[in-house]
Structures are given as C-alpha cells and as structure tokens.
Design goal:
The complex is a heterodimer.
Chain A: E1 24-30, E2 35-41, E3 49-54, H1 67-81, E4 84-90, H2 95-99, H3 105-110, E5 112-119, E6 142-144, E7 158-164, H4 174-179, H5 190-193, E8 205-206, H6 208-212, H7 215-222, H8 229-232, H9 241-244, E9 249-250, E10 263-268, E11 273-277, H10 281-289, E12 308-310, H11 312-319, E13 326-331, H12 335-342
Parallel strand pairs in A: 3-4, 4-5, 5-6, 11-12
Antiparallel strand pairs in A: 1-2, 1-13, 2-3, 7-10, 10-11
Chain B: E1 19-25, H1 35-41, E2 42-48, E3 61-63, E4 66-67, E5 72-74, H2 82-86, H3 97-119, E6 128-130, E7 133-135, E8 140-148, E9 152-155, E10 160-167, E11 179-181, H4 186-201, H5 211-228, H6 233-242, E12 255-256, H7 258-263, E13 271-272, E14 275-277, E15 284-286, H8 292-296, H9 300-330, H10 344-367, H11 379-393, H12 401-411, H13 424-427, H14 434-440, H15 444-457, H16 465-483, H17 489-492, E16 509-510, E17 513-514, E18 517-527, E19 533-547, H18 551-559, E20 570-581, E21 586-593, H19 598-609
Parallel strand pairs in B: 3-8, 8-10
Antiparallel strand pairs in B: 1-2, 4-5, 6-7, 9-10, 10-11, 12-13, 14-15, 16-17, 18-19, 19-20, 20-21
The chains are: A alpha/beta, B alpha+beta.
C-alpha cells in the first residue's frame, strides 16, 4: 500500500462545511468512541453532497453515557450540512440489530437523512443474515453487498465501491491471510456467516430492560433509574467498551476477528485516489492488502491508472495527537489549485 | 406451664467448611474434545469458603454478567443452592453462562489465595481514583462476557476484568466459527487476575517508564498462570507420565492458553515458555535462550516471555537437581530410564517434586514484589528482588536455587545495573550504609506507632480489608509527617528523595515544600534463621518531578522558579522501598530510584523518544 501525500486544508471552524472544487473534503470527529467522518463532495446542485460515515459515534447502541457527546456532534453536523445529510452509511456492525435508531434520536430530530446505507448482514430479509433479525428498523436502509456500486446523488467526481462484509468468499479474513502461506487458506462462505451470532441459547438471555428491574443488576451494575445510584455506578459500566476495547493489559497484541461491518471505498475520479472506510483499523489493513477495484474498471475505455489508497484512519491517527472536536483534510484536489490558494 | 411446645433438640454447632468445591476446566474446553486430554481436563478447585451472594459476589470478587455486545444479561449463579453445593457446582459446560461465572470466580479466587499465602497478608485492590479522591475498592469486578473480541484484559480504571468471546478460526481442535470464550481458559483468568493483584500492590508499575515496565506486568502474569498448572494434580501426573519425567519437552504444563492460540489462527498455544511451533514444519522445537532478544524484543508480551522463560528455566534446573536421586534409585544407579512407560510410583514421586518446586518458585516470584522499587522496575531489578527474597525465605541456599535463578537470567542477558559481580550475595539488595543506618534510626519511633496499629489488625488473613486499608493510611500519614520534619532531611537523599531547599524546582511542590507520597506501609512476614516468624515492614515512598524532552527547558525549570511551570512532557518518578525489621529494629534494605538522577531522567526521555 502506498500512501499518497495529502493536500491538507486548514481546519476550518466555520459553521457550514463547503466542498472543494474537485475531490472531497473529509472531516473526522473524534470522540474517543470509534470514528465518524463527514464528507462533502462537489455536486451538480447548489449544495454539496454530504455523506456521513459513522463507525459508532452516533449510531452506537446503548450509548447512554455519551449522550452529551452525541448531542454536540449532532449540533455540529446540523450546522455543517445545513440540516440535511444525503447519505448516512452505518459501518458499525450490529447497529439496527441491537438498538434500532433510538439512541440516535438526537441526531434525527435535527437532521434530515436522504438515504441510509447498511451492510447486507443487517438485512432482516436476507436469508444469510443473522444480525438483522430483531426490531424492524424505523428507517429503511438500503443494504449493500460487496461489488455493489451505489451512487452518490448529484456527484460526478466520485464513485463508491462496497467491499465488505464478505458475502461470497470474495475477500479473505485476517486469519486466512496468516494461513495462506501453506496453501490451507480458509475461505469464509455464507454458511459460516450463518453461525448464530449469540453466544448462548435464548433461554439464558435476559433483555437489558428486564435486567434493569432485577435487584441483582440494579445493585451491582445499572443502579436504579432516577436514583443517584444510576450515575454512581457508571464508572464501572462497560456499555461502550466493546466498541473500543483496548487497554494496557490485554491478553495479546493483535486482534484478529471476523468482522461484519460495512466497508466501502470511495474512488475520486480525476485523481485516481481511493478513500477506504472500515470500522476497524485492522480491517483497513487487510482490505488494502487485497486487490481493490481499479479506477474506471469495468467501463470500456476507462483509464488504467494505478490505485492510490489513502488510509485515512492511519493518517489522522498519526497527525492528531491532541483531540479537537474534529479535523479536516481535503483529498484529491489538484495541486496547482492549492498553491494558488496559498498565494 | 401454658407453653406446650416441647424444647427443640439443639444439634452441636458445626464449623464452617474450609473450602467450597467448584468444578472447572483444568485448561480450557478444547482439551475436552481430545480423548487423551479429556480425562484430565475437568477438575475440582478447592476455593476458600466464604459467604457468597448470587453473582457470585464475595469478599474479593463480584461477577456481573452483562453482555452489551449481544444486548443482554445472564442471570447470576447462586453457588449456595443446595443442588450446587451437593455437586461441587455446575458441570463444565460451554453453553451455560452460569458455569462461566462459576469458573471465573473459582480460578480468580485460587489465584488470589496463592498471592495471599505467599505474602502472608490480605490482598487489596488498587484504589479507585475519583474526582473526590481515592476510594477503597472492596471487590474486583469480573465481566465474563464483556465484548466480542479475541481478548481479555484488566481495566485499572474500572477495577474490572473484561473477558471477550469470538468465533474461532479453523486451526487446531476448534470448531471453525464456533464461539471461543476467553473466560473459560484457566490460564487467561489467572493471568488477568494477576494483573489486578499486581496493580493492587504496585500501582505505578502500570505506567510505562522503561522498556521493561509493561513487559514485566505481562511476564509476571504469565508466570503466575504457568506455575498454577503444577497445582493441578491429575494433569501434572498425566503430563509427567507422557514426558517420562522430562519437563523440558513439549507438554501442556509449559504452555499457556491452548484453545485461544489455536482459535486466533496459531498452530499451538498462545504462549509457550519452552519452545515454539515452527510455522513451516508445524513441529514443536525448544527455544534456545538468546541474549540478543533482550535488545530486539520490545513488544510487552514478547519481551515478557523472556522473563517467563528465565524463571521457567530456573525452575527446570531446580526440578532436575531434585529428581536426580529418584532417577538413580529407580534405575539401579544408572539414572537412565528404560524404554516404555515409567513406574506409576515414580510418576507420583516426580509429580510431587515438580509440584513442590513449582510452589516454591511461585512463592519466590510473588514475594519478590515486596523487594521491588516502587517505580520504574526493570528486569534486572526484579532479579535482585528475587534473589533477596529467596535469601530471606531460605537463608542457606544448600540446593543452589539462587544460583539457578541467576544462571537462567544470565543466559538471557538480564543483568542488574550497578552490581560488581553476579554472585548471589552481590546481587542481593545492599543494606544501608552505616551512616544511613544510623540516620534511619530516627524513623524507628514512628515505626513503633505504626507497629502497634499493624499488630492490632495485623493484616492477618482474617482481618477486615477496608480496616486494613484505613490503618495503612494512618501509618502512611505518620511516615509522611516524619519525612517532612527537619530530622528526616538528612536521610531523604539516601532514600532517593529530594526534600531539601536545593531540590530541583521541577519536583512537584505543595506550599513550597517538595511533595512526597507514602504509597504503602505493609507487613511482610518471613522465616528467621532459627525458624521463627519475623515481620518486616515494607514502606514505599515516591516523589514526582516534571520531565521535559528538551534538556534546555528541563534545566531552566529545574533552576528557576516559574509559576505556573510549563506543561510537562512526562513525569519522572523516584523514591524508595524500605524494609524495616521490627524485631531487631533496623532498616534492612533501602531500594531506591533516585529522583535527582540525571541518568534516570535521560533514560526516561530516551525511552519516550525511541520509535517502537
């Protein structure tokens, strides 16, 4: 993977987020709970096309403790987009399976959503999907499979490729890459993804609402709603831990898990750069080591330029040691233009 | 008499049972699926009896089984249910979350008990650092199903152990895609509990101040998990029988977390103290000690494994010397075992020797924690602590254990700094110089006050832990007050502290006086030369100093008063551990990390600047 030098825009704290003339502007919100990207593409209409790629900041389930954070991000999003997000891509694994849209109510009270994109594994009607069985979603997402190319409304300069989760043995998992040396690489098929996602039989599972009424869980974990204990116990709760699990005393160095989150690549047409979005940093590592669709691939006469993958997460992480509310980068803008700006 | 009911017969009072029997996996569920290991994999742990409520929630632990990633909770197990009491708890079953709760409780309690027995006092968790100050944490929280992840960890902010679960890869004996629970691995639970116990003893060890800091935490946790294997009698006998007494060959005893290792796509256990599986041939091969590893391995788990290998190597030398006579007796003097299975009686005797050697090594490793500096520990420091602790435990080294330890560490390039030779005597921490010993006599009246408090509650294994913590704070305040008095100024420098007017201004101050923190005042029991039990007092005092990556800025802040001082790049911590003999009224060891040392400052800076 080669990392292209990025054209860096100065972080603007103006209310409205504008799109560059070409390429895309990317804003990353960092709240310590996964990442959340807002992208502004130049579009044919008067306003840019706004795409929100959420990896758990807003749509993360059960984020009761982070309500304030969510409100702050939601307010900023509302200002930046003028109240309308064209595409909301939920890359987080079981986003509607667990929670529906309830926890994100703050967001949707303020912002209109054009389309919701989710991974095929969330689709309750897909026979191979196990994650989707749960509450019917209040919003009706469009479910995508690897190889799909959904359109960004009004945008000419970018194309979206859905890369994951693997649904047809098209992509390897990290452990397969490790085993590939001896030729025993293991291809995950739909059969494997059908393995029940719950660790225990339904007879053992107690829904959280019932547990909140139970004296044991009240005394040891949730506290009593409306009582001081509800807040006093928060410091030991682990509601969001599974989104970010990392700590100094972990058992092993590397995580290596099968993931079922939506992964997508956005190809910027004039520059040939590809932005990769995946919920897990590790995922971006394995995806980028795999062959990506080339620019213009499948189109007769399309240019055969090499793909440059811009690993945003990695880049942001390197640059941002101190965490402001968000940082912005502009990608795929012609270099000459940037110089002109500086003069 | 109007009351007609006849008097009831009073049965004689019954004593509380000393143990509660609970069934667990000896290793992890994967060994249940193989005929040759299934028989040894289910065992009963004898956990010290305590009154429990559902959870289980006891004196040290509370198991809370919430699973946010699956959006549900699991009902807490009641280990006092008559059916469970009659049957040594639930049957090992991967599909029953209540068995998982039982197993994490039983294994964690066993680990705690090993710690308490080695140290002869109650174990305390580290305090919660809240906005309103430090708070006593009675129970460590355990979440057996905290996340979907091939990982488990100790979270020092929540004072909790978090265990993950995940679908298995297709290697080894796992069902591909079947769910693997880290909380069902004996080794993983012991490892994580040890992190929590170590943090309770030395809360600064979690801060990475040198390349060994995190590696020590990992290595030490692995050592405890590994040596607990030798307290599993059936597994020990079985493995000794298979290996024909040779513990240096591949066996379950030297390996950690079989199922997890295979489930994440390795060919063998997660970690192996003795060897490794060649990725090309998939054959196990012993690992040769390589001193170059110490310079090249910087990742905490890999580096920690050097420490594990050193301790395990020392253990093997001790075991070999202990069984040499048995082998000669069994082989009519030749020492060469005949072909085929060895005599079951010999297996039992060898297993007995292995178990008691392992127990000794484990106790030595745990007791050495009382002989460590309070901050900035290195492997070399730990070697000195081990040797000193063993000398206090077994005054005459007639079996050559200490030599075995030094030899094993030397073969891996682990040397302490600032010692003249590798003789065990020069590796022991030095006592204070005559002048220092004289000056430290000043401390004794303070100690006497502490002593009466310590004697009162005594930290005995039956004392109330919250009271112990409170008493410790009273003692700590007394020592703190003395340190700030004029008479202590002269000895402060000998303790690696800086309290005088000339102290660098980068040292944090309170009301214009350099701040100090008395971390801990706790008793450590040891055997005296003629068999009597002696009590030492372990006192840990620390100080912190603003550190800057730029030396010019450092010099400036050190010398000129700036208010407020510029934001520090790091904190340099220094201080000392004092061991005071209460019977003979003398300070036995002063183990310090000098706060003023320019070399330490430079080393810390270099550690932060080096690119991993």
């Amino acid at each position: 993977m080669s990392e292209a030098p990025l054209a860096e825009g100065t972080p603007e704290r103006t209310a409205k987020m504008t799109a560059p003339a070409a390429g895309v502007k990317v804003r990353m919100y960092r709240q310590g709970l996964g990442n959340c990207f807002l992208l502004a593409f130049p579009a044919r209409g008067p306003r840019p096309c706004y795409v929100l790629i959420d990896c758990g900041v807003l749509l993360g389930p059960l984020l009761g403790t982070a309500a304030e954070t969510k409100r702050r991000v939601a307010a900023s999003l509302s200002e930046a987009t003028g109240g309308k997000i064209d595409i909301l891509a939920a890359t987080l694994e079981p986003w509607n399976h667990v929670s529906g849209f309830q926890p994100a109510k703050e967001v949707f009270d303020r912002i209109e959503i054009g389309q919701v994109w989710a991974a095929w594994t969330e689709d309750p009607n897909d026979p191979a999907s196990v994650l989707g069985r749960g509450n019917p979603p209040q919003y009706f997402p469009q479910y995508w499979r690897p190889g799909d190319r959904p359109e960004l409304p009004g945008v000419d300069g970018a194309r979206v490729h859905i890369l994951g989760p693997p649904g047809d043995a098209s992509l390897p998992r990290p452990s397969d890459l490790a085993g590939a040396a001896d030729g025993s690489a293991h291809e995950p098929g739909e059969e494997e993804l059908k393995v029940p996602s719950f660790p225990f039989d339904v007879t053992y599972r107690v829904p959280p609402d019932a547990a909140r009424q139970d004296p044991f869980f009240q005394a040891s974990y949730f506290g009593v709603a409306g009582q001081p204990s509800e807040h006093e116990m928060a410091w030991r709760q682990i509601e969001t831990e599974w989104l970010t699990s990392e700590s100094h005393s972990s058992l092993q160095r590397d995580r290596d898990i099968t993931t079922t989150s939506l992964a997508l690549a956005i190809e910027l047409l004039p520059s040939g750069k590809v932005l990769l979005f995946a919920a897990e940093p590790q995922e971006s590592r394995w995806l980028s080591s795999h062959s990506l669709p080339g620019p213009g691939e499948g189109e007769p006469g399309g240019p055969a330029t090499p793909v440059t993958v811009v690993d945003l997460l990695h880049h942001f992480e390197k640059r941002c040691t101190i965490t402001p509310d968000y940082v912005e980068l502009t990608v795929g803008e012609p270099v000459g233009r940037r110089r002109k700006k500086k003069e | 008499m109007s009351d007609a009911s006849p008097p009831r017969i009073q049965p004689p009072p019954r004593r509380r049972p000393p143990f509660r029997n609970l069934r667990v996996y000896a290793f992890d569920p994967s060994l249940d699926w193989q005929l040759d290991t299934a028989v040894i994999n289910q065992m009963v742990l004898r956990v010290p009896w305590e009154d429990l409520t559902v959870g289980p929630v006891g004196e040290y632990l509370e198991v809370v089984d919430v699973d946010p990633a699956s959006d549900c909770c699991y009902a807490p197990v009641d280990l006092d249910h008559p059916y469970l009491l009659a049957e040594s708890g639930l049957d090992p079953d991967e599909g029953d979350p209540q068995f998982h709760q039982q197993m994490v409780y039983a294994v964690a309690m066993t680990t705690i008990r090993n710690f308490e027995r080695a140290l002869g006092r109650r174990a305390l968790w580290s305090q919660a650092d809240h906005a309103q100050g430090f708070q006593f944490v009675r129970r460590l929280r355990i979440y057996p199903h905290a996340m979907r992840d091939a990982n488990a960890y100790y979270d020092s902010n929540r004072k909790a152990l978090l265990f993950g679960y995940f679908p298995a890869a297709a290697e080894g004996h796992n069902l591909p895609g079947g769910i693997v629970f880290t909380c069902l691995s004996h080794d993983v639970v012991a490892h994580e509990t040890t992190h929590a116990l170590l943090d309770g003893l030395h809360r600064r060890f979690i801060e990475p101040t040198n390349v060994d800091s995190k590696a020590f935490h990992e290595g030490f946790a692995d050592i405890v998990a590994l040596f607990q294997h030798f307290s599993l009698p059936a597994a020990l006998r079985d493995q000794i029988r298979k290996a024909r007494g040779d513990l240096a060959s591949q066996s379950l005893l030297g390996q950690l977390a079989q199922q997890l290792g295979q489930a994440v796509g390795q060919y063998g256990a997660l970690r192996d103290a003795l060897g490794e599986v060649d990725p090309a041939t998939k054959q196990w091969r012993p690992k040769e000690p390589n001193p170059a590893d110490l310079a090249s391995l910087r990742e905490p788990h890999a580096r920690g494994s050097i420490l594990v290998a050193a301790v395990f190597d020392a253990f093997l030398s001790m075991y070999k010397s202990r069984i040499a006579d048995l082998l000669r007796i069994a082989t009519a003097g030749s020492g060469v075992l005949p072909q085929g299975d060895i005599n079951p009686d010999l297996v039992d005797r060898l297993a007995g020797e292995a178990a008691s050697t392992a127990r000794h090594v484990l106790i030595m490793c745990i007791r050495a924690l009382d002989y460590c500096p309070p901050v900035d520990l290195s492997f070399g420091d730990y070697l000195r602590a081990l040797v000193t602790a063993d000398r206090d435990l077994v005054p005459d080294d007639d079996r050559g254990y200490r030599i075995a330890i030094v030899e094993a560490f030397r073969r891996r390039g682990i040397y302490p700094q600032g010692v003249r030779s590798l003789s065990t005597e020069s590796l022991c921490w030095p006592g204070p110089t005559a002048a220092a010993a004289h000056a430290l006599l000043e401390l004794l009246p303070v100690i006497d006050g502490v002593r009466s408090t310590a004697r009162h509650h005594g930290w005995s294994l039956s004392g109330d832990r919250q009271k112990i913590r409170e008493d410790m704070e009273v003692s700590a305040r007394a020592v703190h007050q003395w340190l700030l008095s004029d008479s202590s100024r002269s000895v402060a420098r000998m303790m690696g502290l800086s309290l005088g007017t000339t102290a660098p201004l980068s040292i944090e101050r309170k009301d214009g006086v350099p701040k100090i923190e008395v971390h801990s005042v706790r008793p450590a029991r040891r055997q005296g030369p003629d068999g009597q039990t002696l009590t030492d007092l372990v006192i840990e005092v620390t100080q912190k100093r603003r550190g800057y990556l730029e030396t010019a800025l450092q010099d400036q802040v050190d010398k000129e008063p700036v208010d407020p001082p510029p934001q520090e790049d790091f904190w340099l911590r220094g201080g000392c551990t004092l061991l005071v003999d209460l019977e003979h009224r003398e300070v036995r060891y002063v183990i310090c990390k000098d706060i003023e040392s320019p070399e330490r400052l430079a080393a810390h800076r270099a550690f932060l600047l080096e690119t991993p």
